[in-house]
Amino acid sequence: MMEVEIKKEIVEEILKLCRFDLIFSGDEDKIVSGSVEEVCGVLIGELKENKIVVEKVRKAENIAKSPFLFEISPHDLYNAYIDAQKEGKEVVGVFHSHPHGSPNPSPLDIKGIKGTGLLWLIVGRELKAFSYDNKLNKIIELKIKIE
Ligand SMILES: [Zn+2]
Q: 3, 31, 92, 118 - which has most CB atoms within 10 Å?
């Protein structure tokens, strides 16, 4: 089974960018998103045989400026590809936040996961990772291994 490997510092950075840094502090009643709009960015790393390794994260502008959807600024996406290439890495995925809290993909997310073929990390009250499996012809949830 395909899994996502990601360092704890990177997860913390993503949560901070998505302004979900209170999530794991314990008191469920205090879990609130600090951002009304969805926050998004690009994940850079390496694709291995049965594993996607996320090594770096880059915030990107959500040009949709919406609480319900995101659209990564083409300029930021381009820069992420250049950045990855310079370091001999790859753009392995994208992340975005769900300020309402559910980490499950919306119908639009499902289209995006299928269309891009990339790893999609969704940040809500928990972290979930999805990708499209060509062989099975469906979207699968990937196991996230935090180191
Ligand atoms: Zn979404």
A: 92
| Amino acid, res. 136 | L
In the set 3, 9, 38, 49, the catalytic residue is 38
Distance separating alpha carbons of residues 1 and 111, to the nearest angstrom: 22
Q: What is the DSSP-derived secondary structure letter of residue 105?
A: P
Q: Pick from 26, 147, 45: which is nearest to 95 by CA?
A: 45
Distance from the alpha carbon of residue 70 to the mean position of ligand 1, in angstroms: 7
Would the pLDDT of 47 be above 50? yes
Domain of residue 101 covers 3-146
Count of domains for the chain: 1
Q: What is the CATH number of the domain that holds 58?
A: 3.40.140.10
Give the other-Cβ count within 10 Å of 143's Cβ: 12
